[in-house]
């Protein structure tokens, strides 16, 4: 196992990455809440259209994570190539 630390550019804008992370967490919390309520309505209230709301909330949550990873990669790649 290698003990080498990962290369993190010194000029990396950590404030920007922190705001991206906070936005992603907010998106995930909202999507999780919507998904839970939609699933509860579907399972216990037998409201069939809420199944699609549940699936859409899951897809939006995964989309939020993918957006965050892509933005993080873009930010670190741009800073690493200039350093």
Can you walk me through this structure?
The chain is mostly helical and 83 residues long. It has one domain (14-82). It is built from 2 helices and no strands. The protein is elongated. The protein starts with 13 loop residues before the first helix and ends with a helix.
- Summing up helix and strand content along with how strands pair, one would put the structural category as mainly alpha
Q: How many individual helices? A: 2
Query: What Rg, in angstroms, do the CA atoms define?
Result: 18 Å
Helix content: over 70%
* Head-to-tail CA distance between termini: 27 Å
Low-confidence stretches: none
Key descriptive features of the protein:
single chain, 83 residues, mainly alpha
Map the helices and strands:
Blueprint (H helix, E strand, L loop, with lengths): L13 H32 L4 H33 L1
Helix pairs in contact: 1-2
Question: TL;DR?
Answer:
Helices cover 78% and strands 0% of the residues. The chain has 83 residues and is mostly helical. Helix 1 (14-45) runs antiparallel to helix 2.
